[in-house]
Design brief:
The chain contains 7 helices and 8 strands. It has 163 residues and is α+β, with helices and mostly antiparallel strands. It has one domain: CBS-domain, CATH 3.10.580. The strands form 3 sheets. It has a 3-stranded antiparallel beta sheet with strand order 1-8-7. It has a 3-stranded mixed beta sheet with strand order 2-3-4. A hairpin with a 5-residue loop joins strand 3 and strand 4. It is elongated.
Length: 163
């Protein structure tokens, strides 16, 4: 019988509020040994994900934009708006200032594990928040969850074929 996201996901995941101080979120991630946190608005809806990648700007800072001078004009070789975004992340003090601002890729509990794994692969995400029909966060599915399920499935199939 095909497994669903609900069979494998971590239920009631640890979350952080969008207005929480960044240091608080970093401490949660370190203490819980997790690589990302779903970010919840004051109203309780999912608004983003704070990941280790987002936090790297805090450790490394934003690189200075490359530019050339031509006839007393500055010509940026990369988009200066992107530099502003990177600088904002590097200097941010709250979760909302640092978290990725792209739309969060989500799934539902009844989705097949295969479909969720394909979605994670296609969108190149490490984790999928799981939302119920009302849009409430009920779980999170990570690459690790999928690998552990693969190992369990493999062990079960070996046990069935052993004499």
């Amino acid at each position: 019988m095909p497994r669903t996201v609900a069979d494998v996901m971590t239920r009631d995941p640890i979350t952080v509020g969008s207005n929480a101080l960044l240091q608080e979120a970093i401490q949660i991630m370190a203490d819980q040994r997790i690589s990302g946190l779903p970010v919840i608005s004051a109203e309780g809806s999912l608004v983003g994900i704070l990941s280790e990648t987002d936090l790297m700007w805090q450790a490394t800072g934003a690189p200075l934009p490359a530019y050339v001078m031509l006839l007393d004009s500055v010509i940026y070789l990369k988009n200066p708006t992107r530099f502003n975004q990177e600088l904002h992340k590097a200097l941010g003090q709250t979760v909302a200032e640092v978290m990725s601002d792209h739309p969060v890729v989500t799934t539902q509990p009844e989705a097949s594990l295969r479909a969720a794994a394909q979605l994670m692969h296609d969108k190149q995400v490490r984790r999928l928040p799981v939302l119920d029909d009302s849009g409430s966060l009920v779980g999170i599915l990570t690459r690790g969850d999928i690998v552990r399920e693969m190992a369990r499935s493999y062990s079960d199939s070996v046990a069935e074929t052993s004499p």
